[in-house]
Amino acid sequence: MTTRAGFVALIGEPNAGKSTLLNRMVGAKVSIVTHKVQTTRARIRGVAMEGDSQIVFVDTPGLFRPRRRLDRAMVAAAWGGAADADVVVLMVEAHRGITEGVERILEGLQDIGEGRRIALAINKIDRVQSEVLLGLTKDLNERYDFSETFMISAERGHGVDALRQWLAQELPEGPWLYPEDQIADLPMRMIAAEMTREKLTLRLHQELPYQLTVETEHWEERKDGSAKIDQVIYVMRDGHKGIVLGKRGETIKAVSQAARAELEEFLDRKVHLFLQVKVRPNWLEEAERYSEMGLDFKDGN
Questions:
Q1: pLDDT band per the 50, 70, 90 thresholds, residue 10
Q2: Dihedral sign, CA of 17, 51, 87, 140?
Q3: Based on the number of CB atoms within 10 Å of its own CB, is 288 exposed (0-12), middle (13-18) or buried (19 or more)?
Q4: Does 42 have pLDDT greater than 70?
Q5: What pLDDT score was predicted for residue 231?
Q6: Is 300 helix (H, G, I), strand (E, B) or coil?
């Protein structure tokens, strides 16, 4: 048996569907998915098996124009993930076409593309007419010489199998990098924190888009097979703390219940989740917070 294994980087603008595609490929919820932009902060890896190939996905933060330290660190992580990968997949939303952001990514590909297989995946194909799709495919391939082009709907699963099969055959020959039953190399503590942060993002909408982060402080395995998880939600101002807690603690209670339910489903066992909210005015400037998110603090300079 000839085995193959390697890294595949998914790149694109925020909300292009990278997390949805990763979860579809891996078959489990590894990367958080929300309708808010910029929810993926760390380079989360999901592992998918396709025949004798092991595909390790690097789900990079969306590429956008950075304004603050956290933005710059996220963009550096995205390009770093692409430069380290064996194969790169650029995801473009069919209905948005070639935006200014896509133009910038196409320019960036010129720097990392040499000797590397780069595929184009046009996502959300169900939102446009076929002639629009064909025109977009032609335009993009004229701007960059992609190894292959795929028309997909990450949400519905259309075209995803063909993309996964192509990726599997493009990876270098070699032993598998992870045990077959391991779907993510991200520490469970971070996955748990991301799940809670997703619930907060969905619940609070635009009120606190960037000003909070979640960390798993303690994880205790109990004798009855359950897990006790203590998490801290860091916010930047006292006013933000009130928003997260909600009237009579209703918001934090709802977030805790939703996060616990998802964790129990993911871990397939009972979870005792305890959330605390702490004010930390400068958390965006603390190196420790960045390493918790899998980002390099220095990349934000």
A1: confident
A2: negative
A3: exposed
A4: no
A5: 94
A6: helix
Nearest to 159 by CA among 170, 148, 169: 148
Q: Which domains are delineated in the chain?
A: 4-170 (3.40.50.300), 188-300 (3.30.300.20)
The sign of the torsion formed by the CA atoms of 221, 291, 56, 127 equals positive
Which of 53, 74, 50 is closest to 64 using CA atoms? 74
5's CB contacts (< 8 A; 6+ apart) are 53, 54, 55, 56, 171, 172, 174, 175, 176, 177
| H helix count then E strand count, the chain | 9, 9
Calculate Rg over the CA atoms of the chain.
Answer: 20
User: How many whole angstroms separate alpha carbon 153 and alpha carbon 205?
Assistant: 25
What is the per-residue pLDDT for 156? Answer: 92
With vertex at residue 299, the alpha carbon angle to CA 297 and CA 300, rounded to the nearest 5 degrees, is 75
